[in-house]
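Query structure, 651 C-alpha cells:
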C-alpha cells in the first residue's frame, strides 16, 4: 500500500482562489433554478422535515406532541406538495416510542445538518424554509465535492465529479429531501480519498454516511484497519489522527443512540423494514435488474466500463489498481447484503431505478477520470464529436431525470418493458418487482390482492396463491378471458402455495385465455378486464373506472365474430359537472350529447366493416377538462373531463 501523505492543495492561496471561485459560481448557477421549483415530498421526506423542526425548535433529536404541531403547521401552509398528515407520522412506528416522545426508522443527523444550515443563515439575516435548508445543504455538499476533486485530481477531477452528478440519475435527487444525495456526496468523497490513499479521511466520510445507513460503518472501520496496517511506515499526522477519531465517533453515533433509547443497534430490526438476509438471493437486482438496477438505467455507466476496457486492451495501458478493487469488493459485499435485507425491495422516493442502486455511482469516478484523460489525448475533431455526444446525452439525461417529475416506482423501465414484451422467457424478476411494476396496483393500497399478473407479452402469467381471485393485473392491456385465468389460479392454489411464473400458449401451458366478446361487461376498474380495451390517452385505472388524460382518449372495441352490425353501450361519467361529449369513429361523429357527473349510459351502433385488427377504434372527446387542484378539491393536478366505467355489448 502506498504511504498516506498529508492532504495538499486544500489551502486557499492566490493561485488556487481563481479556479475555486469559478467552480463555486458554476455550482451555484446550476443550483439556482432548483430553488424556484415547487417543493414536493417524496418517500420519507415528511419524517426528515419533522425531525428538522424538532431539532431547530426544541433542540432535541426525538419528537414530541409539540413537534407534531410544528409539522402540522408546515403541512397546513401547503408550501410542499404531498406531505403526509401528522397523525400518520405519529402512528408510523409504534415500537419507537419512549413515554411521550418517539423516533423514526431514520436517523436524525441529516436533519441536524439542515437545521445547522438554517440556523447559520439566520445569523446573516436570511430566513430559509425547511425545504430550502435541505437544498442549501445539498449545495454545500456539492461545493465541497468540487473543491475536493480539484484539490486531489486537478481540473480532470472537477470535470469527472461534475459529470458523475449531472450525467446520472442523481440530478433528480438534488432538490429531494431524502438521504440519497447526502449518501452520494459522502461516498464519492470517500472514493476520491481512497484513490489518493487518504484512508482515515475516507473512513470519516463513510462514517458520516453510516449515520443514515449503518452498513457503511463496517466499510469505514475496515479502512481504519487498513490504515493501521501501514502505521509503522507512515505515522499518523495530526489532522489525519483527527479524521481517524472522527470516523470512530461517527460510526458509533447511530448504534449508540438507538441502544440507549431502545436497546437495539438499529431501529430497522425493531420497528420493521429489514430482516437480515431476507432477499440475499436477489442481491443482483441493485446492479442488473432492468427496473431497479443501476446499469440498465444508466447508459453512461455502461459506456464508461466499455470505454476503459476497450482503450486498455487496445493500448495495453490499463493498469489494475488492486487496492481500489479490494475497497470496491468489500463495499459491495457489505452493502449488497445490507440492501438485500430490506423487506421492501421496490420502494419509493425514486424516479424509476431503486435508491439503493445509487450507492454504486461513485465507484465510476476512477473510470470517468480515465475517460477524461483519453479525451484529452484526442485530436480536436474527435474531441468536438465526443463533447457533442456528451451534450446530447446530458440533454437526454436531464429529460429522463427531470427533477419536476414525480417519484415513480410502479411502472416498468423501457428496458424492462422491452424484455417482458419481446423476450419474456429471458428473465423472471423477483415477485415483488413484477407485481408492483406490471399489475398497475399501488402497493400502498392494494398490495397482496392481485391473484395473477399478466405480462405485456400476454403469454407470461405470474400466479400468486392465497390472494383475491377477483383482482388480476393486466397493464399490458391484453384482451383475455378473466374467468379462465381465475379458474387456472384457483386450480394451482389447491395444489401449492406461493407464487410461480407460467408460460401460456404453444411455448408453455396449453391454455387459450383469449377473450371472445359477448354480452358480458368489460369493466375498466383497477384489475378488471376492460383495461385491455383502453388505447391512448388514459390515466391509471382506479377502483371505480378510468379517467381520460385530457380532452381526448381512445378505446379499441373488439368485433364480435360474424357480426355485421353490433351495438355497444359505454357507461361514462363526467368529472365535477355535466359536460358535452362526442364519440368518433374514423373521424366521423357517431354520438354527441351530455354526460353527467355520474354513470351515463351511451349506446352506439358499430359496423364490422370498420374493424381494424379485429377491433373498432373509438375516440372519446370532452368539451372541457378541469383539475381537482384548480377547483380546490385536492392536490391532484390531473386534467379530468370524461371517465369510462364499462363497455358492454348490447344484444
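Result returned for the query:
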Amino acid at each position: 500500500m502506498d504511504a498516506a501523505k498529508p492532504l495538499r492543495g486544500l489551502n486557499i492561496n492566490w493561485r488556487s482562489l481563481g479556479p475555486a471561485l469559478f467552480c463555486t459560481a458554476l455550482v451555484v448557477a446550476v443550483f439556482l433554478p432548483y430553488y424556484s421549483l415547487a417543493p414536493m415530498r417524496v418517500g420519507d421526506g415528511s419524517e426528515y422535515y419533522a425531525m428538522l423542526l424538532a431539532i431547530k425548535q426544541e433542540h432535541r433529536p426525538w419528537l414530541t406532541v409539540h413537534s407534531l404541531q410544528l409539522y402540522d403547521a408546515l403541512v397546513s401552509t401547503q408550501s410542499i406538495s404531498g406531505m403526509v398528515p401528522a397523525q400518520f407520522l405519529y402512528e408510523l412506528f409504534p415500537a419507537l416510542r419512549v413515554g411521550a416522545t418517539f423516533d423514526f426508522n431514520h436517523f436524525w443527523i441529516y436533519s441536524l445538518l439542515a437545521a445547522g444550515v438554517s440556523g447559520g443563515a439566520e445569523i446573516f439575516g436570511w430566513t430559509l424554509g425547511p425545504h430550502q435548508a435541505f437544498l442549501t445543504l445539498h449545495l454545500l455538499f456539492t461545493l465541497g465535492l468540487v473543491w475536493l476533486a480539484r484539490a486531489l485530481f486537478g481540473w480532470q477531477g472537477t470535470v469527472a465529479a461534475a459529470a458523475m452528478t449531472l450525467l446520472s440519475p442523481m440530478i433528480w435527487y438534488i432538490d429531494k429531501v431524502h438521504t440519497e444525495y447526502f449518501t452520494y456526496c459522502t461516498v464519492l468523497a470517500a472514493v476520491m480519498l481512497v484513490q489518493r490513499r487518504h484512508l482515515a479521511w475516507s473512513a470519516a466520510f463513510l462514517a458520516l454516511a453510516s449515520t443514515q445507513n449503518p452498513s457503511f460503518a463496517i466499510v469505514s472501520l475496515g479502512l481504519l484497519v487498513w490504515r493501521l496496517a501501514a502505521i509503522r511506515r507512515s505515522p499518523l499526522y495530526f489532522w489525519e489522527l483527527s479524521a481517524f477519531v472522527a470516523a470512530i465517533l461517527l460510526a458509533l453515533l447511530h448504534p449508540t443512540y438507538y441502544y440507549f433509547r431502545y436497546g437495539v443497534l438499529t431501529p430497522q430490526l425493531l420497528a420493521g423494514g429489514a430482516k437480515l438476509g431476507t432477499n440475499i438471493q436477489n442481491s443482483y437486482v441493485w446492479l442488473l435488474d432492468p427496473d431497479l438496477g443501476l446499469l440498465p438505467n444508466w447508459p453512461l455507466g455502461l459506456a464508461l466500463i466499455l470505454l476503459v476496457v476497450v482503450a486498455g486492451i487496445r493500448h495495453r495501458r490499463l493498469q489494475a489498481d488492486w487496492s481500489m478493487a479490494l475497497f470496491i469488493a468489500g463495499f459491495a459485499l457489505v452493502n449488497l447484503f445490507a440492501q438485500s435485507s430490506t423487506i421492501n425491495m421496490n420502494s419509493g422516493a425514486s424516479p424509476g431505478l431503486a435508491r439503493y442502486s445509487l450507492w454504486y455511482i461513485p465507484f465510476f469516478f476512477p473510470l470517468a477520470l480515465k475517460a477524461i484523460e483519453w479525451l484529452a489525448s484526442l485530436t480536436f475533431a474527435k474531441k468536438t464529436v465526443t463533447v457533442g455526444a456528451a451534450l446530447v446525452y446530458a440533454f437526454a439525461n436531464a429529460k429522463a431525470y427531470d427533477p419536476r417529475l414525480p417519484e415513480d416506482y410502479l411502472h416498468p423501465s423501457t428496458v424492462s418493458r422491452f424484455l417482458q414484451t419481446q423476450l419474456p422467457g429471458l428473465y423472471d424478476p423477483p415477485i415483488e418487482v413484477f407485481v408492483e411494476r406490471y399489475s398497475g396496483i399501488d402497493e400502498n393500497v392494494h398490495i397482496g390482492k392481485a391473484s395473477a399478473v399478466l405480462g405485456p407479452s400476454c403469454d407470461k402469467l405470474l400466479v400468486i396463491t392465497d390472494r383475491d381471485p377477483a383482482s388480476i393485473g393486466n397493464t399490458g392491456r391484453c384482451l383475455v378471458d378473466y374467468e379462465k385465468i381465475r379458474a387456472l389460479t384457483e386450480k394451482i392454489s389447491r395444489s401449492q402455495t406461493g407464487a410461480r411464473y407460467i408460460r401460456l400458449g404453444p411455448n408453455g401451458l396449453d391454455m387459450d385465455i383469449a377473450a371472445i366478446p359477448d354480452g358480458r361487461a368489460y369493466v375498466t376498474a383497477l384489475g378488471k378486464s376492460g383495461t385491455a380495451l383502453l388505447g391512448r390517452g388514459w390515466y391509471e385505472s382506479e377502483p371505480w373506472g378510468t379517467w381520460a388524460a385530457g380532452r381526448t382518449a381512445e378505446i379499441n372495441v373488439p368485433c364480435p365474430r360474424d357480426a355485421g352490425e353490433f351495438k355497444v353501450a359505454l357507461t361514462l361519467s363526467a368529472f365535477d359537472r355535466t359536460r358535452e361529449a362526442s364519440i368518433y369513429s374514423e373521424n366521423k361523429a357517431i354520438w354527441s350529447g351530455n354526460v353527467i357527473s355520474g354513470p351515463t349510459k351511451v349506446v352506439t351502433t358499430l359496423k364490422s366493416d370498420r374493424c381494424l385488427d379485429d377491433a373498432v377504434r373509438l375516440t372519446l372527446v370532452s368539451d372541457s377538462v378541469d383539475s381537482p387542484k384548480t377547483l380546490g378539491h385536492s392536490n391532484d393536478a390531473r386534467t379530468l373531463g370524461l371517465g369510462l366505467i364499462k363497455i358492454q355489448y348490447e344484444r
